[in-house]
Amino acid sequence: MVATLDGYTGFKHFLISSPAEYVAHVETNRPEKLNAFIEAMWLELGQIFRKLSHDPNVRAVIFSAVGERAFTSGLDVHAASQGPILSQDGTSDGSRYATRVRRNIYEFQDSISAIEKCEKPVIVVMHGISIGLAIDMSCCADIRICSKDARFSVKEVDIGMAADIGTLSRLPKIVGNHSWVKDVCLSARFFGAEEAFAVGFVSKVLENKTQAIDAATKLATLIASKSPVAVQGTKEILNYSRDNSVEDGLRYTAIWNAAMLQSNDLKSAMLSGIKKTKPRFEKL
């Protein structure tokens, strides 16, 4: 049974619900425009994930989109053409114009990076058209699932730019095949669910969107049943270790666990294993 999530009803472009205990489901809600993003949407998305990050009633997050045709067709190009990046507004000085554009890009990047920085694990479910910003956002998620009809593209070169919201920085760390990464980024060609699975971009392909959402909900529910201290610590250490050396990762883990092993969750989990009971963990 899907329930509302307290404190998340004021968002215009997203639906937020709770399909299971401690699980939040965020859905992009602009299906009439193939869920293309305008500036108000990415700013709102950042607000949502920052709020979810610190919400003690949330331990895992599913991110998907309303409608059958598209997860997202990316940036709303028409709206962007009227926005601050492509409109100089009479600014003749190149340095001042570049400064304004750079600040706008940073704001966009920070909003999308909020998915990755969210303390709670995020499972993204992609379907149908999943291009441009779809890759940026999904690269920020912890787990990627898609339906068989998903069609992906790193589309930015086709609109005359290098992707600047995270794909070029994150995708090479997700997919070990740099030749493939450059293939899809330089050509902007489409690739399907099977190819995405084969290179490791997604971890699971389901028959349709409904089955993909169901699979994500089951996984999120399982994760949410674990100790939030353990789960959030695991995400933090994995992300830190991805970007640092093994030695640095080990040192960070030792420092992290020196504090977090003091949690009652450790005792509860161990006792439940011995007694064959299901543990209940306090909110974090």
TrEMBL record:
Keywords: Acetylation, Fatty acid metabolism, Isomerase, Lipid metabolism, Peroxisome
MF term (GO), any: delta(3,5)-delta(2,4)-dienoyl-CoA isomerase activity
GO biological process, one term: fatty acid beta-oxidation
Record's signal peptide: none
InterPro entries: ClpP/crotonase-like_dom_sf, Ech1-like, Enoyl-CoA_hydra/iso, Enoyl-CoA_hydra_C
Main location: other
Annotated pathway: Lipid metabolism; fatty acid beta-oxidation
Compartment(s) where it occurs, according to its Swiss-Prot or TrEMBL record: Peroxisome
Pfam families from the UniProt entry: ECH_1
CDD domains tied to this protein: crotonase-like
Record keyword Iron-sulfur present: no
Any one GO cellular component localisation term in the record: peroxisome
Entry similarity comment: Belongs to the enoyl-CoA hydratase/isomerase family.
PANTHER family associated with the record: DELTA(3,5)-DELTA(2,4)-DIENOYL-COA ISOMERASE, MITOCHONDRIAL, ENOYL-COA HYDRATASE
UniProt-recorded name of the protein: Enoyl-CoA hydratase
Species whose genome carries this gene: Xylaria flabelliformis
